[in-house]
Amino acid sequence: MCDNDDIKIDVSYKPDSINMAKFWWQFMFKEIAKDYPGYDKLHIVYFDEQYTIKGILVDGNDPKFYEEMTNLTNIGYSYFMERAWNKEKHNYESSEDNEAPF
Hints:
This protein has 102 residues and is of the alpha+beta class. The chain has helices at residues 23-33, 63-75, 77-93, and strands spanning 7-10, 37-46, 49-58. A hairpin with a 2-residue loop joins strand 2 and strand 3. Helix 1 packs antiparallel against helix 2 (63-75). The longest helix is centred in the last third of the chain and has 17 residues, at 77-93.
């Protein structure tokens, strides 16, 4: 069972929920969770089964974390790719290497 300070994301009735315990979904959960470091363990709950996302501790008090997890579980891979694209675009635009090549 989970401790009180653990975070549970229930995916039981989400689209594509049957696949959310598989490697690719766990990878997506980890990639988003990395942006919200904290002290709470992250668990994915699928009906009676529970999967711990190992190696990640998250900030359970950050509402943006829950918003992102909700978007990921409702929208899926397209949200993950859009998020990755926006993050990369922001990193490029804020870097010093974004000057015109001419």
